[in-house]
Amino acid sequence: MTEDTLMINISSPLTNVHSISSKKGRRLSRQKWTANNTRTGKRKASSGVQAGGSAKRRTISASSRHVKPNSAEREKRAAAPVPKLSAKARTSPQVPGESKEHDRTFIKTSSLFRNNPEIPDVLSPVVTQVTEKVFTGNSFQELELHPHLVATLSKVLNVTSMTSVQKQTIPVLLSGKDAVVRSQTGSGKTLAYGIPLVQSLQAIQPKVKRSDGPLAVVIVPTRELAQQSFQIFQKLLKPFTWIVPGVLMGGEKRKAEKARLRKGINILISTPGRLVDHIKNTLSIAFSAVRWLVLDEADRTLDLGFEKDLTVVLNALNTAGSSRQNVLLSATLTEGLSRLASVSMTTPVYVHVSEAAGSSAEAAEHPRQAAPPAAPQVDSYAVPSRLQQHVVVVPSKLRLVCLAAVILAKCKYERGQKLIVFVSSCEAVEFLLTLLSAVLSDKPAGSHKPQLAFGFFRLHGNMQQQERTEVFQEFSQSQSGVLLCTDVAARGLDLPQVTWIVQYDPPVSAAEYVHRVGRTARIGARGSGLLFLTPSETAYVDVLASHNISLCEMKMEDVLSTLMQDDHFKGRGRWEGKKAGSRELEMRERATVLQTDFENFVHGSPESVQAAKKALQSYVRAYTAYPSALKHVFHIRNLHLGHAAKSFGLRDAPQGLSLAAEGTTKGSRKDIKRCAVGFSAQPARWSVNSQGMCGYRRVESTRGVRA
Ligand SMILES: Nc1ncnc2c1ncn2[C@@H]1O[C@H](COP(=O)(O)OP(=O)(O)OP(=O)(O)O)[C@@H](O)[C@H]1O
């Protein structure tokens, strides 16, 4: 046994893998790599707990990233008494059908709590958070809208008073002007453009006919947002049945879409790629009647590399020649968006709600015309005032158990909590879904069927469209549960009653942070966010602060303390009621038990090991692709591959980890566009140094990279 490893013997009934949802697709994907996977009857874990070992002290040194234990500390540890080990493992009650698995004894879990970098205190700079007032005291009746439209707003959409962005935007758009609209997430931007659009189309005489084709084109970055916007138009158009909305998006059958286009769609909602597809291949698409162009989440549409597609769309619209109103909206205006505004718009009105909120009432009444926003304002993002933002600093090795503890705390020990967990790749979403749902399930007494007290859902770009739609609807309607997803769910989605946003893998920019966290605390509701950072990534807090975003630190120990409520993860209970510090020691032991469960599960079958490796590979690949402006925070050389492997339930850093471009699947490319950068053109060779840290150098090989 190494200095770093000790064995404890934990016996608890272990369960078979189970499915967590009635959905066939999800069940199948889980069963794929879990069919042979049973958890061992004996769990042997190394807790790394020393009898006299108090919690590692935090230091305030922000520069101490990946600090190795100094020699004095190492000596102290070496000298510390090591708990006596049981020579023989206790066996757990045998579950029928698990006898073979029980032969797998003496599995070691190397210490979770040793050799971690020290956790610096997070000193979030003091910033003045930009806030916006969500509601105004003004009702829609004050506007000159069709009475049926006002009635629909209150009866069908259940809205009566205007939000700030609606109060400022609707009159501008009703007057026929172009607008660039920025207001915080969940503030009602969809209706801010939807209401004037419907008001203007219903007033056209003679009445609009299907055969007129598109009168309005609404472009959104994701399929789910396209569906969501389409549904809102369906509701708004209830009294105006002669106006037909329609949606076009990737993943749907082109032939069916062509048929609908032929029949006639008046309000066309589409993702950019699919619209370009139809512009190129569908004869019946004609833009001569278009009067409105709306780019919702316009900065994201550019981010995703759709700039080319947008150029095709704009050219097609411009060639058709009709004059039209242009509207760009986003909670995060960027330079790219302003550039686009100057390309496609004439003297737009800039509606910036946060500016107005902080300035005089008169300014609030009169949005600025034509002048683009001043530079500092562009970088200050407003976030909902009832959003509580937290950050937790967790060493790589402990990430997985901390995530599990957060999920248990919210979903098992509290009621009615709905979480969204953002991770960086499709592979990691799939892997975590299977792992967490298997390991965090309960097995009620007298039953061999594991049960989850809450549902897990997943959403990423590698899923079939039908399943994406089903999951989106299911999670929307669910009262509680956890949605594991990539950034496909970061923008625009209005999922009701989401209470927590967990950013397990940090986002690629402050703007993406704002959009992700904006899936909660919508339209004046409360909500919370938790950002996971490793000790080497704490400078990200300063990056966010430069955009006026302030986070409050949550201590890792507080997160892990949930495990004290869950006797599934009870070790031998050696620390119970003993001297001071015993609670922390027991908590560490429980964390180790949980990690051992994860590792046993992963190493229970070659398929699951493979899935873990694939997920780790995609994580590392995503890590290499943070933009250069964030390399001082997220640099691959700061990533400890062995520690990162632990957070995927792997006992060691895998050999031959391929980071080649060919390993990137179609879906993950879409979801983590950043990951494609640099691999195919200039492959790098990865290596792990004696401390297990990653490094890379450029190589000529086109076959990619190996650790
Ligand atoms: N005037 C209103 N009164 C009450 N609820 C409203 C009002 N306007 C919109 N809402 C509701 O607020 C929620 C958020 O609206 P919406 O999705 O349009 O926000 P958003 O500003 O576009 O957010 P994001 O920036 O995240 O896309 C929706 O559920 C919508 O029905």
From TrEMBL:
Molecular functions (GO terms): ATP binding; ATP hydrolysis activity; RNA binding; RNA helicase activity
GO terms under cellular component: nucleus
Annotated Helicase C-terminal domain residues: 386-560
Domain DEAD-box RNA helicase Q: residue ranges: 138-167
UniProt keyword terms in alphabetical order: ATP-binding, Helicase, Hydrolase, Nucleotide-binding, RNA-binding
Residues covered by region (Disordered): 18-104
The Helicase ATP-binding domain, residue ranges: 170-351
Domain remarks in the Swiss-Prot or TrEMBL record: The Q motif is unique to and characteristic of the DEAD box family of RNA helicases and controls ATP binding and hydrolysis.
UniProt name for this protein: ATP-dependent RNA helicase
Gene name linked to the record: DDX31
